[in-house]
Design goal:
With about 425 residues, this protein is an alpha+beta fold. The chain is about 70% helix and about 10% strand. It binds guanosine-5'-triphosphate. It catalyses: 2 GTP = 3',3'-c-di-GMP + 2 diphosphate.
């Protein structure tokens, strides 16, 4: 029988309710969120990382294969540097594959989004580097190679608005620096004027792409966070309901004064055990306990002290119920019943005697009793349930034994 006052349970319930309040507060305010308060942010990042490992990692692997696939252009346009460009491309791909395999298995597993962002940045940087190695005007073809990388950054980093923005802006800055500081290849005057018009337009186009991507990533991330909050709220509500149901069950089956099972639960368990022992044809034993001269105890020590005495005796007896199916319950007033399924009469009587001795050993002062300490009288009955008998017969038999124990002078065990 679980303990109703389980501190751990009520602490957990308190924690769950606190989290529900925080989440409901955030959702009620109805604003878009790109950062949650405290631990919630950390939980969200863990969740996002998990999703990344499940879904986005495959997208990154696909992107890397595309990146490697473009090596045909290295050989086609690379001239003398074709091999060098291919080796660089190959090394970037291999490094990223290694990181994608190793990081999730390492202590950096929580930083997969950062790894992906760095990988995309590295790929973009490599293309900027390749532009330097491609001979003459052919290098302009590689400028366009930055577009798919930028688009890929928008897709792969859509769940992290900040990572997407940092990678995109950094790449654009590197590109502009390269434009400013690298030599322009000798071109015909016509081509030169086209390039002069085209380059600022290309940078502007890129900026617009980043702006559009930033807007989309912001919308996607805030909606992902919103969904996360709603799902988390649902999970917390379910957890809360589970605790409340458990607590309700405890309240309805526990006696509030003694903390052991109440009569309702006793009757339910007795009926179940009776049916089970009827099927298995094994003995079912009942130990009926009554505190001796308890009226005198109350009269002498007061009702409150009487309650404490009831509690202590009940708890001491409950500690003997070790096997599954054993149950110690308050039957009413100062009467208790212990159900012992699959227990033979001799074993039950032995256990009853141990319980009686343990109550004497509690040494609860009882000045008006001849033993000077609180004692109990115990009646024990056992039966192998039959179809034409009922658990009431067993109860009546235990009650008769208890009556005899009282008749024999109390503080003793009588077994049928
Ligand atoms: N403090 C307290 N006393 C209770 C409670 N329930 C029953 N009692 C008291 O238990 C006493 C039972 O008295 P009796 O039935 O006369 O039995 P007894 O004095 O124990 O005498 P014997 O059973 O013959 O040994 C009554 O005085 C009840 O008021 C309770 O929840 N708390």
């Amino acid at each position: 029988m679980p303990n109703i006052s389980s501190q751990q349970d009520s602490d957990t319930l308190k924690r769950v309710e606190e989290q529900i309040n925080i989440l409901s507060g955030i959702l009620d305010r109805g604003r878009q969120h790109l950062r949650f308060p405290g631990r919630l942010e950390q939980r969200y990042l863990e969740f996002r990382n998990q999703r990344f490992l499940e879904i986005d990692q495959k997208i990154i692997i696909g992107g890397l294969l595309f990146y490697l696939g473009f090596s045909w252009s290295d050989f086609y346009l690379g001239g003398d540097n074709a091999n060098l460009i291919f080796i660089c491309r190959f090394l970037v791909t291999i490094t990223m594959f290694c990181l994608l395999w190793w990081v999730p298995r390492s202590r950096f597993a929580a930083h997969m989004v950062t790894v992906a962002a760095s990988g995309i940045f590295l790929a973009g940087l490599s293309v900027i580097f390749f532009i330097q190695l491609i001979p003459d005007a052919l290098k302009y073809a590689y400028h366009l190679g930055l577009v798919p990388i930028q688009v890929f950054a928008l897709v792969a980093l859509r769940l992290s608005y900040r990572a997407m923005l940092v990678v995109s802006v950094s790449l654009l800055v590197c590109y502009v620096v390269m434009l400013l500081f690298s030599d322009t290849p000798p071109l015909s005057p016509e081509l030169n004027s086209i390039v002069e018009i085209f380059m600022p337009l290309f940078v502007l186009f890129w900026l617009l792409l980043i702006g559009m991507g930033a807007y989309l990533a912001y919308a996607i991330e805030s909606s992902a966070r919103n969904d996360y909050m709603k799902n988390r709220l649902l999970a917390l509500e379910a957890e809360r309901l589970q605790y409340l149901t458990r607590r309700l069950h405890l309240l309805s089956t526990t006696d509030s004064l003694t903390g052991i099972a109440n009569r309702r639960y006793l009757e339910e368990c007795l009926a179940n055990e009776w049916r089970r022992c009827l099927r298995s044809q094994t003995p079912l034993s009942l130990v009926m306990v009554d505190i001796d001269n308890f009226k005198d105890y109350n009269d002498h020590y007061g009702h409150q002290q009487g309650d404490r005495c009831l509690h202590d005796i009940a708890q001491a007896m409950a500690s003997f119920c070790q096997r599954p199916g054993d149950l110690c319950a308050r039957y009413g007033g100062e009467e208790f019943i212990i159900i012992l399924p699959d227990t033979a009469p001799g074993e039950a009587a032995y256990m009853a005697e141990k319980i009686r001795e343990s109550i004497v050993a509690l040494a609860i002062p009882h000045e008006t009793s001849e033993h000077l300490v609180a004692t109990i009288s115990v009646g024990v009955a056992s039966m192998i349930p039959q179809a034409d008998s009922s658990s009431d017969d067993l109860l009546r038999s235990a009650d008769r034994m208890l009556y005899q124990a009282k008749e024999q002078g109390r503080n003793c065990v009588v077994a049928a």
